[in-house]
Specification:
The protein is α+β, with helices and mostly antiparallel strands. Helices cover about 35% and strands about 25% of the residues. The longest helix has 15 residues.
Length: about 260
């Protein structure tokens, strides 16, 4: 799995002249090396560890705000951060949790991935959102949900993505036949094959994915998204999961 390299310049921007060695360690070692080891621990998990450590020490200044923003970017939802800080409060102190909540409310003020948004999205479509897609969570950035619709003839499922959620680059392999077909159900999303421009997926959009084609798909930055995923029968079928779709790749599509 390819690692996502974290680029940080805050140290040099703010302390480059006053404390150049500290700036170097902050930008190149802490973020450039430690935070970039996401093959060992995901960015989401590192965000959880970091915000827990800061809140436990009573650090609720701009550094916590930065890491709360990073946690949101790394896929932690408003509902999850509320539960996380509540849990921390029992172990680190109630007043520390209150202070953290004041910052978290601002960071997630415009969030569209809470339970209310999820319930509203469910009302837009006839297929169920289903359960958290925990079995494949390591192959997604953000939260996804899976509802198996049929297991007969051509098996297919409804896959739901919260805003900004997308799966890794991957390939459906088969010695004969195989591949996948996607049908947009609700919201707005993206599909992209390697070396080709991304395609917008709207309700009714049909995407045909032959076996052997490297691709990814997921939600737009400002919309929940759901598609039906049809598993095309074939011989010796399998999935090969590859690298993450980086924020740089993904954010280009939103412009």
């Amino acid at each position: 799995m390819a690692q996502k390299k974290i680029v940080q310049t805050a140290g040099r921007d703010q302390l480059g002249e006053f404390a150049p060695k500290f700036a170097e360690l902050n930008d190149d070692v802490l973020f450039g090396e430690v935070w970039s080891r996401n093959d060992l621990l995901s960015l989401r998990d590192r965000s959880l560890v970091t915000i827990t450590s800061l809140i436990s020490q009573g650090i609720t200044d701009s550094s916590l705000t930065f890491h709360l923003q990073s946690a949101k970017k790394n896929g932690i939802t408003r509902t999850e951060i509320a539960e996380i800080i509540t849990h921390i409060g029992f172990y680190a102190g109630w007043s520390k949790a209150w202070a953290a909540f004041r910052l978290a409310k601002d960071v997630w003020a415009d969030d569209t991935t809470g339970e209310g948004a999820k319930a509203a999205f469910q009302r837009e479509m006839i297929f169920p959102i289903g359960e958290p897609n925990t079995a494949y969570a390591k192959y997604f950035i953000g939260n996804s949900y899976l509802a198996r619709i049929s297991t007969e003839q051509i098996p297919f499922s409804n896959v739901t993505f919260e805003p900004r959620c997308r799966n890794n680059w991957h390939i459906h392999k088969a010695t004969k036949g195989g591949g996948q077909m996607l049908v947009g159900v609700a919201g707005r999303g993206w599909y992209q094959e390697e070396g080709k421009p991304a395609q917008e997926i709207l309700p009714g959009t049909v995407i045909h994915i032959p076996a052997g084609v490297k691709h990814w798909h997921g939600a737009a930055t400002d919309s929940w998204f759901a598609h039906l995923a049809f598993e095309i029968p074939g011989e010796n079928t399998s999935n090969e999961w590859l690298e993450f779709v980086t924020d740089e790749e993904y954010d280009k599509l939103q412009k």
